[in-house]
Amino acid sequence: MAYIPLGVAFGVLLSASGVNWYWAPLSTLLIYAGSIEFLAVGFMVAGLPLYQVAFTSLIVNFRHIFYGLSFPVGRLRGRVRKAYGVFALTDETYGITSAGPGAHLTGRQITVLQVVSHVWWFLGALLGALLGQVVPESVKGFEFALTAMFLTLAVNAVRSSRSAALVLLALGAGAVGYVVDRYVVGESFLVVSLLLYVALISATYRKDEEAAE
Predict the structure, then answer these.
(1) Residues 141, 110 contacting (CB under 8 angstroms)
(2) What is the pTM (predicted TM-score) of this model?
(3) How far apart, in whole angstroms, are the C-alpha atoms of residue 188 and residue 37?
């Protein structure tokens, strides 16, 4: 259900930025990647070249490579369902299927979850795009909706795992990524942080396995 207010925020932001309202529902159907869709509004307004849009999209969605390592695509039967499962893999559906009760969903339940989420996102963006035609330009803050949802998912993940070590590792990886992004290679925060975090949790997992043996 969180896709409704988030989609509304996206639709309003797009309309308020001067982009034709119908691009909101179209992007939810064809792109379906919340964070990059929010950024795409700025891309369209600024008229950025295609190569820069492609590179930024790669960096922003780089995390999906790691999602694929543990997403239960094997439970999805048939090429169509698997293809849609990969296309519709979002932060939210991954967060649900990777922790807590959601980790035990069947393939059919995963597909239903993704379809329902996609429909909510589409309807929210459509509603927001229409509302954006009448919302005053003085109203600000819609772009923070995505950040707020990521924070909520992070809090829920921490509560589910109840592991302080994972939080500390994430903070450490983020700190290193920030330093590298700021002083070494620009626009590298996400890539560096994710790679380092995966390396750290892999080393921790291997250490725990060896201790158990």
Answers:
(1) no
(2) 0.66
(3) 20
The pair of structure tokens assigned to 89 is: 């893999």
Distance CA 199, CA 165 (A): 14
Instruction: Tokens 């369209």: give the residue.
Output: 44
CA atoms within 13 Å, Cβ hemisphere of 8:
8
Which residue's entry shows tokens 């707020």? Answer: 148
Helices (H), 31-90: 34-46, 50-60, 64-70, 79-87
For 47-84, the pLDDT digits (tens) are 878 877 887 788 778 778 878 878 888 889 889 999 99
Whether 153 and 95 have beta carbons less than 8 Å apart is answered as yes
What angle do helix axes 3-16 and 144-161 make, rounded to 10 degrees? 160
